[in-house]
Structure formats: structure tokens, C-alpha cells
Amino acid sequence: MSGRKTTGEKNLMFFSGRAYPELAEEVAAHLGIEMTPTRLHDFANGEIYARYLESVRGCDAFVIQSHTAPINQWIMEQLIMVDALKRASAKRITVVMPFFGYARQDKKGRGREPITARLVADLFKTAGADRLMSVDLHTSQIQGFFDGPVDHLFAMPVLASYLRDKLEPENTTIVSPDTGRVRLAERWADKLGTPVAFIHKRRDLDVANQVKVHEVVGKVRGRTCVLIDDMIDTAGTICKAADALYEQGATNVLVAATHAVFSSPAVDRMKNSQISEVVVTNTLPLAGDKRFDKLTVLSIAPLIAQAIGEVFNDGSVTSLFEGDS
Q: Which amino acids are annotated catalytic?
């Protein structure tokens, strides 16, 4: 008989970068494990050092990092952590990025533009990642940019569960802020039993984050409207969409979004808007100056923990979303 057999057990190890330790700790608590101690610090010139304080040989490694500001630093830190795991002989490395940085640039809109979503996926593959896990990618096509499994998680069950108790389906319309989110709006409508509307918008191609024209398509007059999106950055799109809905006779407008990027001047815009409530998840950290009375933050940690458990146990991530993933 050649070779050697072993009865070794699978070993899940969970690691976190420095971008958002609070979310990592919450995920670890739901998994019922402790995060593996890791030494991370910056050299004087800004370079990042990483070292794991326990052996990771043969483990099933999950490395979580939220790509928040300063986004380039935290992406680089996660890449370095993955490289360290690969060189320390981790068996399988899953990169958990609740918010996928640079995902908005997923195609060339005009000549001489980059496709940064593909670039980021390639960087993690080169670093040694075997699998990616993210919540509400900007577009589903990004799953094809990574040469390996991609677990695309949806925050809709978390957000819809909260809103269901606040809404009367017969008097509610789910609204997509643009044509690109219509399929997502349809899934929301199917789940809540409501009709769908969408807003046709045109962007100023020469000015970032600037929307020029809105036109509402669908039944909104006399109804409560729920605007849904994957992220809120400067809130220009959402606030103008809310104004357009009120102009068309909507009686109330709520917003549900997964990623609260909240770049300036988003908070001031939403504070002073006609929107009655903004519901987001905690895929990104929100400092005190980014919180306001209309804001409700729901935890995404239980969903991420469930997905990690399914991957580790060779289960079905799709089952978490009733076949929608």
C-alpha cells in the first residue's frame, strides 16, 4: 500500500482585517468561534505587515474585510492577509467582502475606461483566494469575473422582513431607482406581494454622481413607495427619485439599501429630503456623524455567518435565499 491516510478533521479559522472589526466580531459570535489572533500594523512608509499568531496549515480560512474608506488601504490589507495564508499552507481560502470595492466599474461605458471590478477579482485570485463571498454585488455579472466559486448573498430577506410589518401590500409599490434594478425590484415585489415601478434616469457622463433627468414609470399615485437599491453613495439619485415620486402623487417614500457608503453630502441630503425612513444593513461601518433620526441599520452578520457555515459544511448557500441566488 502506497501513500498515507489520515483521519484529520476539517478546521474552520476566521480572520479579520482592521477595517471593521465590530462586524467581524458579530459574525464570529454567530458562528460560535473566536477570531484567529492576527498581528497587523503599518510600517512608517504606509506598507502593511500581517502575521498569524497560530498555525493555519490545512485550515479552511475565511478572511473578512469591509471595503470602506480608505478603501485602497483595506483592499490591500486583505490581499496581503490572503497571501500570508497561501504561503502558510491554508487548505482553502475564502475572501469575505460584505461590500465589494470598485464594483461600480463593471463594464466600459466609454472608450479608455477601466473595468475595476474585474481587476479586483483578478488581484484576489492572484493573491491566493479560492472563493469569494459578497453581499449584493453591483451587478450579477461580477460573479463571472472571478475564476472560482462566488457566493452572492442577498440582503433582501433581512430588509424585507423588517419592512413587511410596516407596509400594507395593497397600498405599496416597490420602486427601482433605475432600469438596472428592475429585476431586483421584481424579486422584492414577489416577496411582498406588491406592484413594481421604476424611474428612468439619465446621468451626466462628464460629472460623477450627477443625475440629470427622472421619469416615473408605474403606479405610484396615492401609494407608499419603497425605493430599493444596492448602495447609497452621495444620495443624489435616491433623493431626486423620492422627489419625482412625490411629484407623481406618492403619499410616502421609504428607502431600502444594502450598502450605506454615505459619502458627503449624503447625510445632509437625506436629512433634508422628503424620505420618511432609510433602512440599510451594516455591511459598512457607520460613524456617529453618518447616523440620523430617519436611519435604521439592520445587522447582516447572521446572514454572513449562515453562509460561511454552509460553505464550510459543503452545504447549499442558495437555500438561504429560497432559490433566488
A: 201
